[in-house]
Design a protein that fits this description.
Blueprint lengths: L1 E3 L7 E6 L2 E6 L3 E3 H5 L17 E5 L4 H10 L15 E5 L2 E3 L6 E7 L13 E2 L1 E3 L14 E6 H4 L2 E2 L4 E5 L5 E3 L3 E4 L2 E6 L2 E5 L3 E2 L5 E4 L1 E7 L2 E5 L4 E2 L5 E7 L2 E3 L4 E2 L10 E3 L3 E7 L2 E3 L7 E2 L3 E7 L2 E3 L7 E2 L4 E5 L2 E3 L1
Parallel strand pairs: 5-6, 6-13, 7-14, 9-25, 10-18, 12-15, 13-16, 14-17, 15-19, 16-20, 17-21, 19-22, 20-23, 21-24, 22-26, 23-27, 24-28, 26-29, 27-30, 28-31, 29-32, 30-33, 31-34
Antiparallel strand pairs: 1-4, 2-3, 8-10, 8-11
């Protein structure tokens, strides 16, 4: 059995970095033993996930929904925060589709960008759900009811000491993301996370980090995400490595009706130490990533930015961001 390194449309991409050339061999695969011995680099280097823990194999797309939920977190406190710290290696070998499994709902919102009439075919306007009564995102816009899939708004909780890994090219979470709150020592690898209320801002994130330490997000593919592909909110996110991911922003929905996603990575924790290495950002129009926080230290190294219509790196005045060997092709 093999782990697919990348599952993308292109067979091969070449990145010219100074005098060196980095090759993404997109059709190649690595053996199980090779990936078992691979290590994260950068701030998340000490992350071992669920090493030596129970192995949970998920192969059924229907039964796998509950099986995955239990394996990621089997205990919660009174506030609904995951308290499960039992080491566990969770191996996904199927597509788990949550779309439509928790019914639909609607909330007040608007279309903050262009209107349907302004969008050329085949593009469609992006909707936004207001988060509360004080949310001003719809100022100056007509407020209406926006329907959305409840599964996308209810991510799977991930406890400490977990490895979540795809073991074949079908390994996909569709319609629902992952939420780490106060979690330590977590690996998320070789998955596709897609179709979370696509075209609806605040309809759900792919991976949400809140008060975490030692996290490795590696060799995943993100596509058709309503809001952020990865977000770390305002609480600390320390010793995190985000490496070799495909951030695919292509979509019929976008703020400017140009097929490029704006909501990519939002790294705004007041205290954060994050390494972004060897990632592919394409069809983006902003926040790739957006970085803020007075104690933020983010190392961006050897990333490839392609087909962007607006800014890629976006940092506040007080954030510390070091970018090295970055390639941008627009």
């Amino acid at each position: 059995m093999h782990y697919m390194l990348f599952r993308m449309a292109f067979k091969r991409a070449s990145l010219v970095l100074g005098s060196a050339v980095l090759l993404f061999n997109l059709s190649s695969a690595a053996s199980t033993s090779e990936l078992d011995f691979s290590k994260p680099k950068g701030f998340g280097a000490a992350t071992i996930g669920g090493a030596s823990g129970e192995i949970v194999n998920i192969t059924d797309p229907i039964d796998g929904r509950q099986q995955l939920k239990n394996a990621l977190c089997s205990s919660f406190n009174a506030e609904g925060i995951c308290t499960d710290a039992v080491p566990r290696i969770i191996r996904i070998a199927t597509t788990i589709d949550y779309t439509g499994t928790e019914k639909t709902s609607s909330g007040r919102g608007c279309y903050p960008g262009k209107t349907k009439a302004e969008c050329p075919t085949p593009y469609k306007p992006e909707a936004l759900i207001l988060t509360d009564a004080s949310d001003s995102h719809c100022s100056g816009k007509e407020v209406t009811l926006i329907s959305y899939d409840l599964a996308g708004k209810n991510p799977l909780s991930v406890g400490s000491n977990k490895t979540l890994v795809g073991v074949n090219s079908s390994a996909t979470l569709k319609g629902k993301g992952l939420r780490l709150v106060n979690s330590r020592n977590v690996q998320i690898r070789n998955l596709t996370i897609s179709d979370i209320n696509n075209g609806i801002v605040f309809g759900g994130d792919a991976i949400s980090l809140e008060g975490v330490d030692q996290v490795w997000i590696d060799h995943n593919s993100f596509h058709n995400i309503g809001r952020q592909m990865i977000v770390d909110h305002f609480r600390p996110a320390t010793n995190v490595t985000i490496s070799w991911n495909n951030f695919d922003g292509s979509s019929v929905y976008s703020p400017s009706c140009n097929g490029r996603h704006y909501w990519n990575l939002l790294l705004i924790a007041q205290k954060q130490t994050i390494t972004l290495s060897n990632n592919w950002f394409h069809e983006f129009s902003g926040r790739a990533p957006k970085v803020s926080g007075d104690e933020a230290i983010v190392h961006v190294v050897n990333n490839y930015f392609q087909n962007g219509s607006w800014h890629a790196l976006d940092a506040s005045e007080k954030a510390h961001l070091l970018s090295r060997r970055t390639t941008l092709i627009t």
